Amino acid sequence: MAFLECSACGSKFKGSSPQRVCGNCGCPLEFKYDIERLKTAKFIGRFSFWRYKHFMPRVKNFVSLGEGGTPLHKAKRLAKTVGMRDVYFKDETRNPTNSFRDRCAALLISNAVDLGYKSVICATNGNLGASLSAYCAKLGLFCHAVVPKNVDVGKLAQMLIYDAVIEEYGEIVDESLERAEEVAKETGWYQGSVELNPLAIEALKTIAYEVFEQIGVPEWFTVSMGSGGTLYAVWKGFKELEKIGKIDALPKMVGVQAEGCAPIVNAYIRNAEKPVLKAKPSTHALAILVKNPSYGSLALNAIKESKGLAVSVSDEEIFSAEREIARFEGIFAEPASAATYAAIKKLVNQGIIDETDKIVCLITGSGLKSTDVLQALTKKRKTAAVGLELSTKEKILRILSEKDAYGYELWKKLGKTMTRAAIYQHLNELSKNGLVTSYEGEGRKFFKITKRGEKVLRAFDDLKLLL
Ligand SMILES: [Zn+2]
Question: Could you report the per-residue pLDDT of 60-100, keeping only the tens digit for each?
Fold first, then answer.
């Protein structure tokens, strides 16, 4: 029922092996289906990835770690802050290795097993490598992951524990891809790179099928873009649902990139047909750091055909969106996918998205995998610890600026939240720095703020105005 068709010349090929380009013209191939037969196909079994097996190329050996069937959360609190009603997060962090790439791994590794492969190679920015190495581990296959210089440390940790061989090659994933293609040719290993295996698109389109079953068709569907493959896959999913008569409307696709790496967005803005490349692209959202997006033209067409938009957001906007999604909705998204919400905020503010519109943001992976976020949070923890100490000393100074006091009195006034020994420790340090002095009276030791102490207290007040 499934076959491969050339996106340029229309040549057709049998769709069992992971062939990526047309034998006649060299353009990318994609899977197509006999629509009449697809119309009679059914979703099978519980809400999970393989429920849609009849809408993907045929598989004999089904491999699974429990992927797909991910929740779609209505973001009530966060939506309210931007005056929206219907914002949803498709939470792909809930997959077995905490990213949407587990869908790809399930289908690709099933295909590799069907075809009798023992080794798999891929080029990866991280999530795909983590997914493929986990699924390879389950099946006892060998996994070789080619990664660029900068990879999120959590993703590397996953590849290591699943026992993949990691080869560092190139500055960014584009170079790793060339290497993976070369190695596959030399060794005859199964090609697991998303950009080099059209099955990946078929796996990812199930995200559209699931959202359709969860809330129908939203007005807007927001996806961050590295190679552009994910946006294209979601669009392909909705188009198929339309062709087989399950839906009669399509979402407007919003493609989001980081300002420092926006070849597809720049093409959209300049009305160019192909991605506009930059010599040295950069962003801290490593999962979408791709120089030359393989699915760029297809993603661009999808955005235009859907009457959607391509938007870029700064790294700063991305990280603040990540914090907001976590604080308001309890979802820890990786920076690349938090970019979707950053874009939504922008479009709502510009009046492009209507407050009653239904919006889905695709949260592709977990923030726990991301180096920058973890480092920033650890730093924050350290400052928080210092901040707490300062605030206790500040409180003591404030109490003493009203009236001299003895230790027990201070302890009571501070709400008995710490040991008395800790209070005396603070008082010791304060007097060492000349901020308080002590004297004996009524058989007790009284503490008194010094001139210097009062000065420091005023400085605190000034600082507070600044912060
Ligand atoms: Zn062709």
Answer: 999 999 999 999 999 999 999 989 999 999 999 999 999 99
Do residue 258 and residue 219 come from a single domain? yes
User: Is residue 63 included in any domain, yes or no?
Assistant: no
Based on the domain organization, do 318 and 220 belong to the same domain?
Answer: yes
b (16+ CB within 10 A) / e for 283-318: bbbbbbbbbbbbbbbbbbbbbeebebbbbbbebebb
Whether the full predicted model's pTM is greater than 0.85, yes or no, is no
Expressed in angstroms and rounded, the spacing between residue 8 Cα and the centre of ligand 1 is 5
CB 122 within 8 A of CB 180: yes
The stretches of 29-172 forming alpha helices (DSSP H) are 35-40, 76-81, 101-114, 127-139, 153-161
- φ/ψ of 248, rounded to 5, equals -125, 10
SS (HEC) of 394-415: HHHHHHHHHCCEEHHHHHHHCC
In angstroms, what is the span from residue 297 Cα to ligand 1's centroid? 15
Q: Which residue has the tokens 């661009």?
A: 300
**pLDDT band per the 50, 70, 90 thresholds, residue 380:** low
Structural domain for 420, as ranges: 385-466
Q: Ligand 1: distance of its center to the CA of 128 in Å?
A: 28
Give the C-alpha separation, 266 to 153, whole Å.
30
Distance 28 CA to ligand 1 centre (A): 8
CA of 5 to the centre of ligand 1 (A): 8
CA 291–ligand 1 middle distance (angstroms): 24
The sheet with strand 444-449 has its strands ordered as: 405-406, 444-449, 436-441
Ligand 1 centre and the CA of 9: distance in Å?
Answer: 4
235 and 338 in one domain? Answer: yes
Q: Is residue 98 part of a domain?
A: no
Distance 282 CA to ligand 1 centre (A): 33
**Cα angle, residue 125 at apex, residues 122 and 130 outer, rounded to 5°:** 65
Determine the Cα–Cα distance for residues 130 and 113; give it in Å rounded to an integer. Answer: 18
Q: Which of 350, 373, 396 is the last residue of a domain?
A: 373
Query: 390 and 369, same structural domain?
Result: no
* pLDDT per residue as tens digits for the range 310-356: 999 999 899 989 999 999 999 999 999 999 999 999 999 999 999 89
Task: Report residue 96: phi and psi, to 5°.
Answer: -55, -40
Tokens 């040991």 belong to 419
